[in-house]
Amino acid sequence: GESVGLHLPTLSVQEGDNSIINCAYSNSASDYFIWYKQESGKGPQFIIDIRSNMDKRQGQRVTVLLNKTVKHLSLQIAATQPGDSAVYFCAEGLTGGGNKLTFGTGTQLKVEL
Amino acid sequence: DAGVTQSPTHLIKTRGQHVTLRCSPISGHKSVSWYQQVLGQGPQFIFQYYEKEERGRGNFPDRFSARQFPNYSSELNVNALLLGDSALYLCASSLELFRSGANVLTFGAGSRLTVL
User: Fold this and answer.
1) What dihedral do alpha carbons B45, B47, B50, B56 form, nearest 10°?
2) B48-61 confidence digits (pLDDT tens)
3) Given A2, A96, A101, which is nearest B45 (Cβ)?
4) Residue A96 to residues A22, B45, B56, B66, B74: CA-CA distances in angstroms?
């Protein structure tokens, strides 16, 4: 399929290394944040979410950190694998806003063997 | 279990035409949302529907319209197509509308619209 990551910032990591993808969000009132992974030709796939009353949440090989002071979100992927190669988007939402999410511009992660 | 299914997967239209895109949510999901993703950008919110009612609209012109049917499937219609409407149109479904708890949106693979 067509490349989702055309002209996006790119992060290249070696297989087995840890990856850190950063995101600045825009609305200080946002209270729900999600990371999505999008592979070529596919829709965004949920990875992990975090609410604004937390500053860290861990999943399987992934950790999300939230710094509300500077409106910054990061996704850490441990022991990066070739299957992690994709475009990663952060998205922000608001309680009461339904399913309206505001997505960031995305980061292309390339895993080198 | 089938995920969110969208049709058609690809289509080509010319300026001025209209298009109808279709979405079937995950079984049991009552909410459907539509997003537009221009190449190289993140998805942008267009509409959300819950229980057949529009519950939110993004910053898109009136040429964009949608509806949700009693079986919770949905259509997105775009009239008077412009070149700038070329994009991947994503449908996402969720069990309920996100309110006070985590409510995972599940996206379909999208409909790729090219306007010539």
Assistant:
1) 90
2) 999 899 999 999 99
3) A101
4) 26, 15, 11, 21, 22
Smallest CA-to-CA distance from A5 within A34, A33, A45, A38 is with: A38
In the numeric block, which tokens belong to residue B35?
């997003």
Per-residue CA distances from B37 to A66, A105, B87 (Å): 25, 11, 6
Give tens-digit pLDDT for A27-75: 999 999 999 999 998 999 999 999 999 999 999 999 999 999 999 999 9
Residue type, B11: L
Going A37 to B54 to A92 to B10, the CA torsion angle's sign is positive
Q: Is B10 left (phi over 0), alpha (psi -120 to 50) or beta?
A: beta
Q: Which residue of B has its CA nearest to A89?
A: B42
Chain B residues lying within 8 Å of A99, measured CB to CB: 31, 33, 48, 56, 92, 94, 97-98, 103, 105
Q: What is the distance of C-alpha A105 from the center of its chain?
A: 10
User: Residues of B with CB below 8 A from A88's CB?
Assistant: none
